[in-house]
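Crash report, auto-generated. Payload:
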Amino acid sequence: MRQWLRSAMTGCILAGLVLPCTASADALAEIRKTGRMLWGGDQEGGGPYVFPAENDPSQVTGFEVDFAKRIAEYLKVKAVFTQGQWDKMPDMLRTGKIHAIINGYELTRERAEIMDASIPYYVYALQLMGSTGNSRIDSWASLRKGGGAARVKIGVLNGSAAEAYARTYCGERCEVIAYDGNTDTMREVETGKLDATIEDTPIASFYAPRFGGLRRIEKPVQRGYYVIYVGKGETALLEALNEAIILMVRNGDLERIYRKYGIWDEQQAELTDIAEKGRFYGYARATEARIEKNRMPAEESVTADTRKRGWRIVKDYSGILIQSAGMTVVLSCLSFPLAILVGLTIAIGRLYGRQWLRLALTAYVEFLRGTPVMLQLYFIFFFLPEIGVKVPAFWTAILGLAINYSAYESEIYRAGLQAVPKGQMEAALSLGMSRVLALRRIIVPQAVRIVIPPVVNDFIALFKDTSVCSVVTIVELTKRFSVLSMSTQATVELMGMTAVLYLTMSYPMSIASRRIEKRLGLEAQA
Amino acid sequence: MITVTNLIKRYDQNEILRGISLAVRKGEVHSIIGPSGGGKSTFLRCINGLEPFQGGEIRVGNQVLTPATGPRRDARLLEAVRRQVGFVFQQFNLFPHLTVLENVTEAPMQVLKLKRGEAADRAGRLLARVGLETKREAYPRDLSGGQQQRVAIARALVMEPDAILFDEPTSALDPVMAGEILSLIEDLARDGQTMIVVTHSMGFARNVASQVHVFADGYDVESGPPSKVFGDPQHPTTRSFLAQTAKD
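Recovered output after restart:
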């Protein structure tokens, strides 16, 4: 009975996936032409999906990295990992920044409505985990027992299937707390701040060795499927991907990859079932020969055994952190001069321009000051492509920061310009200077001296604000910290290193600004 | 040189100037005296285009300013007027971020497009004339008020204007410094520099001016050669004003 149900279900999955595809797009053609399949994932998600490699943190590893690489080999192209924020993957797909999402994305009706899903490449379930030292939680049913102040605290990944399940299963009787990191909840259970966590089975299996203080409770429940999502109507690409998955199931590639990461379990038998049904739906025609030919050798297994600590972390990860700090420096040093230039122009326009210009510029400033920089970055990166303007991530970050900060700079400069006595403009005009010349030679140089302190202050603020650029796939210092801390759990060490890096970059700026202020400021006093 | 006809200036409902007419010929020194709030400074500022006005007209050489003259639309016209007419402010208004020399060379280089060397030569001569050749590299903040005003005069002179307007040039100075500035202006007068000087110094008006105007309540109540205005004042306002200043 159960077997039959499962088969019927997988049949439905396949049928549902194959039939409605009518619109034709050209992602596959593009992949073939460029020889690169851009696949999206977020390395902050941690192991075993996509995470920084132990020996070289600038490279990613994980079962999805191996999986994508293998898929690409079947398509005879190269797999290129594209970093992005996990919840922004559909936007990246829609705007053509990636060809496919391969990042633990569950098959859900909502997602299938806006994207096309492949057949499953992994069968996951939800594993309840508690602390070895806490006997209060010993079954799913025990979650429902508590009430009032004694309510059980359960940690889940924000926006995950686990969260949805926890809320429907026991949302009334226990406290469901959403976390942004996969392994944060596991640590919290270990330290006793949480009573239990619900994790996808790959995470529970992969990190079991690292969290010795955790135990799995009962069998996993709520089976679900990780699928590859491609753009709506990308039929050709979808068929190629499905065929590759079926091949990988049948020749054991998938099993080998999953065993390498310790996440192969009996639930994966369903993949075989799906593969067989897939053949029925016309996939993987005449593949017996290819199966033999393409068989992949087994590799050394990757496990998350002991947790690195202390100086080991400093030694292994300071290189990559410094490298990411470089990105922070580049972002701020390119965007801030732009912000100053635009800001000064706006300030001049608002003070000396015509009425309509003043109104327009005031609106510009109020709009940009009144909306979060993240939203603005998001707009440039994900919305502009829809009207045909494609700005690469790096320039999106520069542009977004510059535009946002230009609003603040313009206010500072407006104050600075107004602080220059009216007599200065009159004196300049009375010498026969034009207003533009007077501004350029007399007014602005004085205003610039007046505003040095607040401008430097803003530069330091911008410096740290560069971290929001992770929403547009930029990995700078803060994002790198999150990524590494999620995969190593060495949060304290990494936090210290990151703070030290920020300080060593911003403190010299404070000193430099004080010097400039001293030198120029003296001259400014009439 | 400068001809003002029936000039009317209002701030909202307040009439500051109520129909002033005045003509300054080349080489003349006109002095404007009168009680505070009589419209003296406003009158000077109108001539230089720093203030718009509501009636009448101002001719400077071949340029004509009218109530329709706009600071934006007629920028070229205003610049031409200001190139012919220099202005010296009560508060000096030196450029604090520039040295004394740069204060004087800025306009010749930027407006007249003189080479740096040429501008520096001109400025050097004028700084020597006002007795500040040793302060070339100083910043305004290092100078006394009298020295600053002398730099301001050099800054106006360097543009070789046809006329210079002085707006109470000594009011912000102590008597000693004021005396220095007034004798400098007297020097200029001897050299034939056309000037309009708004001043509270009756001595200056009496001894240096070729014409004296008494401004009160927006009217030029009495004008003429100093001997006439000071020796035989006709208008009651003039009389009471002169009586008032005599007491000081």
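Post-recovery validation: Chain B has a mean pLDDT of 93.
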